[in-house]
Amino acid sequence: MRKVGTIIDNLRKGENAPDRHENPYLKEAIQLADYLFTQNELNEKISTLFKDTSKPLILEIGCYMGKNVLEIASQNKQLNILGIDITYKRVVKAARKLKRLNIDNGKIAICDGRAFLSEIIPDKSLNGVCVFFPDPWPKDRHEKNRLLKKEFIDNLYQKLAPKGFFWFKTDHEQYFEETNKLMLESGFVPDDGLNGEPLPQPRDILGGPYETAFQKLFTGKGVPFYQRVYIKE
Ligand SMILES: C[S@@+](CC[C@H](N)C(=O)[O-])C[C@H]1O[C@@H](n2cnc3c(N)ncnc32)[C@H](O)[C@@H]1O
């Protein structure tokens, strides 16, 4: 499974970064140890990341520069939220904002979303997972790179606690339809319920509405997007 963040691990151990990785974001990552974790560190610290570990845990995969993590954490002190992404620059920018505002219920990790679900988080530990505008990989030959595939969705089901939610947004209609089919086949119940009875929504739980960076971009260009919430029964 893909592993990211090892350069930060090495820097934190006092080793030098390879020349081509000399950049200010990596140097800053050393100063953000209470807010920014690597995939290796998550393996050891996942149960102690947050000050109050009794709070419900929400995960955002592909958190980009942390806009949602910051907004959700500051508006919902009753829960913890972890944002993960795979690029150094984005996670450093996200963790920097949390540190500046002294937010202790929001954390960031440089970590692959598939590895997080399959190798790091124990079963039934997550109360909600958000994936907003994941890369759609629209070309047939790249389709294998998509995040939301059957294996991922089966793992997601296992890692969510009962009544946990999955909140998905995308601008790509085909990705939306294919994911929707996989979600229903995996036993998730859509937000409108199987018999049309409304289920609790993240927006009821989390407040909001939260407009992601890519959502803003698409909306600004008049591009429609699709979203749905699924509940683990
Ligand atoms: C198109 S951007 C959307 C960003 C943000 N969710 C939004 O809506 O504004 C997709 C993000 O997912 C991240 N990403 C891609 N593959 C990932 C993976 N396997 N695990 C975690 N993050 C990933 C990318 O680095 C990028 O920041």
TrEMBL record:
Coiled coil: none
CDD domains per the UniProt record, alphabetical: AdoMet_MTases
Reactions mediated catalytically: guanosine(46) in tRNA + S-adenosyl-L-methionine = N(7)-methylguanosine(46) in tRNA + S-adenosyl-L-homocysteine
UniProt entry tagged with the keyword S-adenosyl-L-methionine: yes
Broad enzyme group: transferase
Keywords: Methyltransferase, S-adenosyl-L-methionine, Transferase, tRNA processing
Cytoplasm listed as a keyword: no
List of residues binding S-adenosyl-L-methionine: E60, D85, D112, D135
Entry GO terms, CC: tRNA methyltransferase complex
EC number, as in UniProt: 2.1.1.33
Database matches in InterPro entries: SAM-dependent_MTases_sf, tRNA_(Gua-N-7)_MeTrfase_Trmb, tRNA_methyltr_TrmB_bact
Pathway annotation from the record: tRNA modification; N(7)-methylguanine-tRNA biosynthesis
GO MF: tRNA (guanine(46)-N7)-methyltransferase activity
Role summary: Catalyzes the formation of N(7)-methylguanine at position 46 (m7G46) in tRNA.
Family to which this protein belongs: Belongs to the class I-like SAM-binding methyltransferase superfamily. TrmB family.
Name the record gives this protein: tRNA (guanine-N(7)-)-methyltransferase
Organism of this sequence: Silvanigrella paludirubra
Gene: trmB
